[in-house]
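re: ur question from yesterday

yeah so i grabbed the chain u mentioned. its 552 aa long if i counted rite. heres the sequnce exactly as i have it in my notes:
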Amino acid sequence: MVFPALKPKPVLGAETIFISYGPLDFSLPVSSLEKFAKTGEVDRDLSFYARFLGENGLVNFREFLQRRLDISPVVVSQLTYTPIGEQLLQRLGTVIRTEGRLDGFYALRAALILAAADPEGMTMINIMRKFPTSGIRMDANQLLQLQRQFTILVNYQRAAVNAVTQATEQEARESSTKVPLPKNLQLRGNIRFSQRTLQLTRNTQSLGRNNSPHSFRVELYIPEGLSQPAPVVVISHGLGSDPKAFAYLGEHLASHGFVAVLPQHIGSDAVRRQALLLGIARSSIDRMEFVNRPLDVKYTLDELERLSRSELAGKMNLQQVAVIGHSFGGYTALALAGAKFNQARIAQECNNQQISLNASYFLQCLAVDLPPVTENLSDPRIKAAIALNPLTSIVFGPEGMGEIKIPTMILGGSADIIASVVEEQIQPFIWMNNPDKYLSVIIKSGHAAADQFDGTDQEPQPNSLGFLLSGRDPKLARDYIKGLSLVFMQAYLNGRSEYKGFLNAAYAQSVSREPLKLDLIRSLTPEQLEQAFGRKAPIPIVPEPISSDNPR
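ran it thru and got these C-alpha cells back, copy pasting raw so excuse formatting
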C-alpha cells in the first residue's frame, strides 16, 4: 500500500501560455504550439494568433519553435550563473513570467537546465514543458520584441554572414592581384627575439574619482639583430584573460620583426575572473576599465619611449605603433585608433530597457554609470588597428566608429554567442568612413577562438563550455589571425606596400580550409545586407545619430 501523501508528485510544466495585450488577456495551450511545431497544423486555438503573423511569419515562428540546441545541462548551468547570463535571464524574466505574474528569472533558469538534460534536447516547446508552473505569462509587445531579437540572432545574422561571403566571392573575382599569394604567413619567421617583463605603476581614478596607484605587468617580445628600430604592435587581451593567452601572437609577430607589447589589464583580467568564481567580485568588470584600458596602453607607450632612450635604445620605433585587441581588448584597440566613446548613445540604449539577446549589450551597459569621460582615449602614435570580436554597437555607435581615420580591420566569428557578429562587427564595419578598412569573418568560429587561455592548441571537447565559446578548431582560427595580422602590419606599419596586394578576398580564399572558412572584404553596403535577408532588416543597419546635444 502506498500512502497518498507519499506518492511522487508529477513535475510541473507549463500547459498554457497567457498573453497580455493592454487590459486584455488571451490564452493558448502549449499543446497547440507543439502540434504546429511537429506537423505545421494550425488548430482552432492557434488560428486566432496566426492571422497576425502572416504566411512568412508563421514559417519563421515554426522554425523558432523547432530549433534545437544540443548543449549539456552543465554548460547551461555554468552560463546561467555567470554575471552576463544572470543579467540576460533577469531581462527575460520581466517578459516571461509565472502564472501568478511573478518574475520568471528562477523559473527560466530551471526550465533551461531541465530542457538541456532532456533526451529531446533544448527546444522552445521543451523549455515550456519544463517551466515549473502550470502557466506562462507574456506581454504581447514584449513577446514581439523577443521574436525580433531571435530573428536578429538567427535569421538576419545568417543572412548578414551570407552577404559577407557573397561579397568575398565578388571581390575575389574582381581582384587585380597577379603576384603569387603566400601561404606561409601563418608560420613563425626566422628572426630571433628575446622576452622581457616590465612592472609599471600609474595613478588612476576610481569610479568615485579617488586617485590610487595602479600596478600592472607588460610582456615584451623584442626582435634581435635588426639593423634599425622595429615597429611596435600592442596586443590587448579580453575580459577574464591575460597577456599569456596572446603569447602565440606576440611571438609570431616578433619572429617577423615587430616588437610585441602585451599589457595586463588589471580590472578585467584573469584575476578578476577568479574573483567572480569565488564570489568576491559582484560585477564582471570594473566599470572604469572603459577608461583605464586605453590609458594603460598610452602610459605603457610613454614608458617605452623613456626606455628607448636608455636600456632599449635602438630596439623600437615608437612612431610606428599598431594595436590588436580581442573582445574588450577590441574595444580598447578601436578607442586608441580614434573611435569616440559615446556616452550619449550609452545613456539612451542602456536606459530604455529593450530586450536584447546580444550578450555584449550587458557588458557595454556597465558603462552607463560612468561620470563624464573627459580623457582623450586615442593615441596619435597608433597608425593601424585590428579589432578581434570587438564590442562596438553601444559604446561607440556609428558616431564613434565614424571617427576612425587610420587603417583598421575588424574580425568576427559567425558562431560568436557573446558579441553578435552582425551587431558588433558587420554593421559597425559599414559605419566606418576610413578608406583603408577591412572586414573579416571566420565562418563557424566562436568568440573565444583567438584567446589561447590554456596555452595549448588542443580543441575543446564537443558539448563543452569551451567548445560553445570557441567553436570548431580554434587553432585554425588562430592561424588565420596570425596570417592576417602579419600581412596587415607589414602593409600598414612596416611600409611594405607589396603586402597590400594580399589584403583581399583572393588571399582569404587561398588560405581558407575546413572546418573554418575565412572571408575578407573591403566594402559592404546596407543594400547588400537587405538583399541577402530578402526584406528590410529587423534593426536599423545605420542607427539614427545621437549627440550629447540632442539625445533621443
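noticed a couple things. Confidence is low (pLDDT under 50) at residues 1-11, 273-283. also The chain is about 40% helix and 15% strand.
anyway ttyl
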